[in-house]
Amino acid sequence: MITPPDPSSAAAEPPRPVARTRGRPTREEGEALRQSILDAALQLFIARGLKAASMEGIAREAGVAKITLYRHYETKEQLFVEVARRAQLSVRARLGTMADADVPLETALRAIITKLYDGYTHPDYLAVMRMVIAEAGRFPKLGRAMLEDAQHISEPLVAYLQALKDKGLVDIDSPYDAAVQISGMASGAGRYLLLTPSRHPASRKRWVESLVSLFVKAWRMPKP
């Protein structure tokens, strides 16, 4: 599994051709080349859409020969699946390490929801998800893969909520369902797929704080 780059920088700089040494490429060079191809494909898919984007154009954008691109990805559709999965896994990369269960609930939830919000409302992520929804009928395997990745994204959050439950700090039946609820609400419950979310700090803070208040009130165990 590749390690997704920080999506906040994905749109800031165009992909650069990867400098390669002669002979068999090193593992690091191979990974850098793969990332360059994925970055180029992402930008071209966003700019032109899946149907209009071509493998030749992606190879040119990545600064590689078309034959090199085909060694890594046999079809444009296979490349699109990889781009879509990487976009989703970038949200997992944002989460990093979960807070300790002894950290105040409000503090931990605020950090978690903020990271999820930033990942789910990033323009690149939203653009890819819109394409995924539009193409889901033609790519049933992509839908299943995305659901599997979503479960992977939620794993650290599920473990954190389970730790809170074991300590008797929250009243929740299912840590997994609770994690899905946090992720769904942090992502705007799907509305940002239709409307461009506000990136203004005040709007972001208002949304995050409203969710922190909601979940704390709903889950915190009453004091004896």
Describe this entry's structure for a reader.
The chain is mainly alpha-helical and 224 residues long. 66% of the residues lie in helices and 0% in strands. Helix 1 (27-52) crosses helix 4 and helix 4 runs parallel beside helix 7. The N and C termini lie far apart (47 Å). Mean pLDDT is 81; it is low at 1-15 and 17-21.
Task: Please summarize what this structure is.
The protein has 224 residues and is mainly α.
Beta percentage is under 5%
Poorly predicted tracts of residues: 1-15, 17-21
Query: Total number of β-strand segments?
Result: 0
- State the end-to-end CA separation: 47 Å
SS content category? mainly alpha
Q: Report the principal-axis shape.
A: elongated
Report Rg: 20 Å
Level of helix content? 55-70%
H/E series: HHHHHHHHH
Task: Report the sheet with the most strands, covering strand number, pairing sense and barrel closure.
Answer: none
Mean pLDDT: 81
